[in-house]
Amino acid sequence: MVFKVSLVSTSPIDGQKPGTSGLRKKVKVFKQPNYLHNFVQSTFNALTPEKVKGATLVVSGDGRYYSNDAVQIIIKMAAANGVRRVWVGKNTLLSTPAVSAVIRERSGADGSKATGGFILTASHNPGGPTEDFGIKYNMENGGPAPESITDKIYENTKTIKEYPIAEDLPIVDISAIGVSSFEGPEGKFDVEVFDSADDYVKLMKSIFDFESIRKLLSSPKFSFCYDAMHGVAGAYAHRIFVEELGAQESSLLNCVPKEDFGGGHPDPNLTYAKELVARMGLGKSDTGVEPPEFGAAADGDADRNMILGKRFFVTPSDSVAIIAANAVGAIPYFSTGLKGVARSMPTSAALDVVAKSLNLKFFEVPTGWKFFGNLMDAGMCSVCGEESFGTGSDHIREKDGIWAVLAWLSILAHKNKETLDGDAKLVTVEDIVRKHWATYGRHYYTRYDYENVDAGKAKELMEHLVKLQSTIPEVNKMVKGIRSDVANVSSADEFEYKDPVDGSISKHQGIRYLFEDGSRLVFRLSGTGSEGATIRLYIEQYEKDASKTGRESHEALSPLVDIALKLSKMEEFTGRSAPTVIT
Predict the structure, then answer these.
(1) Residue 1 forms part of a structural domain
(2) Model confidence over 333-351: pLDDT tens digits?
(3) Contact 97, 207 (CB under 8 A)
(4) pLDDT at 529 over 60
(5) Which residues are catalytic?
(6) CA quadruple 38, 40, 41, 47: dihedral positive or negative?
(7) pLDDT for 497
(8) Residues 273, 420: one domain?
(9) Between vectors from CA 333 to CA 213 and to CA 226, what angle results, nearest 5°?
(10) Within this chain, do residues 344 and 414 fall inside the same structural domain, yes or no?
C-alpha cells in the first residue's frame, strides 16, 4: 500500500516539559487534540536527522490504557517523518528494561539496529481511563534521553506549528507477529511486530546460570512466589520462571497484563503489593499458611522490584548492597570482577560500606537512571541501585526488576550449593541479610511519601529547609530540644553533582542534613507523579554494633522521624498528619 503524508497545523500546549522519567499526565490530558502528536514531533525535531530518516525505532510499553491508540499515532508520525521501520512488541508489550535490551541487542533480518525508541509507560503509577499515561524517549545506548535532548524537546513543544502524519496508513495489527510493509514518499516503511520476551530472555540466559537457579527452584526445601501486579512483567514471568526455570504455575501472582493493572496501583512496596505481602507472612493477619521462602514483585513497566523473604522485607538499599557484595561469586556475568558501583543520593549508604570493604570505585549520583548510564557507558560502573525499588547493572541502561530477582535467586542458589541435598538447613533470605549486617553494619532506613501535595506549599517547605541550613548551631539547638538522644548535625547542604564523565553539573538535587554518627535526613521533591507535588523524606540511622542490628526499624528510627517532621514543619506546610506511603 502507498501512503501519503499530510502536514497538520498545530499550536504549542503548555506543560509538556519531560522530567527524568519522561512526560507523565492523566489520560484525559494525553487525549487532548494534538497533545501526543506535539510531543512526538518535538522529539523527532530534537534528534539529529540520521536518528530519524531511514532509522529503526522501537515503540512499545507496559500496555496501560491508551497504549494501543498511542502506538498507532506514533507509527503514522514515524512513517511521515521518514523512519524506515518501527519495531513493536506483540500487543504493544515491552518492559522498560526489555526496550533497552532490544535497542542494544536486537538485529533485524536485514541486519538493522534500532537507534532509539518511544516507551509508553507511567511506570508504577495507576492505569485506566481516569488514571496516568506517559511517554519517554530512549537513545541508541538503550538509556533515557539526556537533559540536552529533553531540554530541546521541551523548547520544541513551545514553538511547534505543524507536524507531518500519514493519516491514510491503515491500523497495524499489533496482536500478531509479522511484518507490515508500506510505500511512502520517501520509500519503504515497515512495521514489525515481534515476540516481547525473546530478546530479553536470551540476554538473561547470557548473564545468569539458569541451571543452578533451576536446581534451587526444584528443591523441596525452596518455595517461590512472583507478583507482576498485572503489569508488563507478566509477559516475561511465565516464560522465564515456569518454562525456563521450572517454577510451578501456582507460584505466579497477577501475571496477566491488564491495561488498568486490575484496578490496582502497580507499585511494588509493602503498601500496594498487598496480596504478595500477605502470602509472604507480612500481612496484618495470619493466613495460617506457611509462606514461601522467597517472594518478589514488579511495577507496571517491570523496571522496579521488591524482594521478600519468609516474613522478612529486604530494603532496596540493602538489596543492591547485598547483590554487589555477592555478585562476583554468584553471577557468571560478573565473574571477572566489578568495574564499580553507584547509588542515588537518597539511597542508604549500605553500598558505600561494601564498596570500601571490597576496594571498588563508588559513585553517589542524583536520582535518575541516566546518571548511572553515563558511568556505565564509560566503563566505570557494573552494579547500581536506588531506594525507590530500582536495581540494575551495565547489561542495559535502565533499572531491571526481573534481573534483580534473578540476581537474588542466583545468590540463594550459590549460598545453598551444599544444602539442597541431604538434611542441611536452607540458607534463607533472612540469613543472607543478617549475615550482611553482621559483616558491614546495618543502615536502618525508611522513606515517607507525601503525595499530591499542593505544589506551592511543597516549595515553601523546601525553601524553609534550605534557609535553616545557614545556621547549623541553631539547628542543633532545635534538634536537642526535640530529642536529646540524637547526635548533632555536622553539615547540611543541597546535593550537587558533577558528572565525572561529561563534566555536567546537576544542582538542587535534594536537601541533606548529615549527623555526626553517620545518620542522614534527606528531603526531595519528586517528579514521578502526574498531579500536584510529592515530597519524599528519607531517614537513615547507621549501626555498626552487630549486637544492635536486630532492632525493629521503626524503633531504631523513631528519634530521627521526630526530628525530621518537626524540623521541616511537615504538617504545618502540607496539612498532612501522616504520609501517604511509608516504605
Answers:
(1) no
(2) 999 999 999 999 999 999 9
(3) no
(4) no
(5) 123
(6) positive
(7) 93
(8) yes
(9) 35
(10) yes
Of 106, 109, 59, 112, the closest CA to residue 84 belongs to 112
d(CA 171, CA 105): 28
Helix (H) / strand (E) containing 38: helix 35-46
Q: How high does pLDDT run on average in the chain?
A: 94
Contact 483, 559 (CB under 8 A): yes
Last residue of a domain, one of 196, 213, 247: 196
And the C-alpha cell for 433? 541479610
Specify whether 338 is located in the same domain as 481. no
Same domain as 447, residue 430:
no
Among left, alpha and beta (phi > 0; psi -120 to 50; other), residue 458 is alpha
Structural domain boundaries, residue 23 = 6-196
Tell me the CATH number at 168: 3.40.120.10
* Same structural domain, 125 and 232: no
Residue 41 is predicted with a pLDDT of 98
Element (DSSP H or E) covering residue 190: strand 187-194
The cell numbers describing 337, all together, are 570482577
Which three cell numbers, joined as nine digits, stand for 81?
A: 517523518
- End position of a domain, from candidates 390, 417, 434: 434
Beta carbons within 8 Å of 566's beta carbon, 6+ residues apart: 478, 482
Q: Is 343 helix (H, G, I), strand (E, B) or coil?
A: strand
pTM of the model: 0.93
User: What confidence tier does 284 reach under pLDDT thresholds 50, 70, 90?
Assistant: confident
Answer yes or no: is pLDDT of 65 > 60: yes
* Shared-domain flag, residues 374 and 481: no
- Look at residue 434 in the predicted model and tell me its pLDDT: 97
Tell me the C-alpha distance between 139 and 150, whole Å.
Answer: 11
How many structural domains is the chain composed of?
3
